Amino acid sequence: MPSVRSNGLEIAYEDIGPREGRPLLLIMGLGVSLVFWEDEFCAMLAQRGHRVVRFDNRDVGRSTKLDALGVPNVMEAMAALATGRQIAGPYLLTDMARDTIGLMDALGIERAHVVGASMGGMIAQTMAIEHPQRLRSMTSIMSTTGSPSVPTGKPEAMAMLVRPPVFERPAYVDQAVEIWRTIGSPGFPLDERRVRERAAAHFDRGYHPAGIARQLVAVVASGDRTEALRKVSIPSLVIHGVADPLVPVEGGKATAAAIPGASLLLIEGMGHDMPREVWPQIVGAITELTAKHG
Known about the structure:
By secondary structure, the chain is α/β, with parallel strands linked by helices. It has eleven helices and eight strands.
């Protein structure tokens, strides 16, 4: 799989679908690699006329690991999240947004539609705020604004963020099943085989616990985007599961309320994942937005 130099880092990516299609960048969430944008999901988007680019964020998968920055205190970050207190991070969502812009530069993509899930949604929002000239549209899935006034997740879901890391492949795969049982979609059956296969693929690609800590602190340290989102003029779509236990639906509602003219799609039974059953709805909504805005 290829990689490019971007923002001083190596960013690993995959380019799927027709090169003449509408360019669509998929930005994944905390600590997980591009395999979480599953092959069949990407194929559905490609079949709807998109040139799909999925990639590994910094500190995960086959992209650059920033271990020289050290491992931040995750418990301090979680305490800051709960109280709305500002903290410093080894890097910010702004830096991760620049990574994505650099990837676009390297691929010769002047303007793209961007879709982000969870932390990826926060990166997409940051791109819309800081690099509006490079975006055709922005879709934020199961994400939030960073405002301390928005409720945090259920205790059992938030606890998944601070679990001690495991370093053996079988243990990691078992832990993944427990995590997705906790934060996944209660309205749909858990496909344990799919969860295990995806977790194993991610572990092999580049599971990196220290990077997860740095990414988590980047989310907390980047603060509240609400006021900046009020100035966004990029056509925007917000998708959120009504039953999300990790990033409650209020986060999606707050995001849509902050962005002028944003559309809001709420999906019953969906938690902090995207079960196959909702793929047609999500792909349809994204396609409707991208087709309207080139």
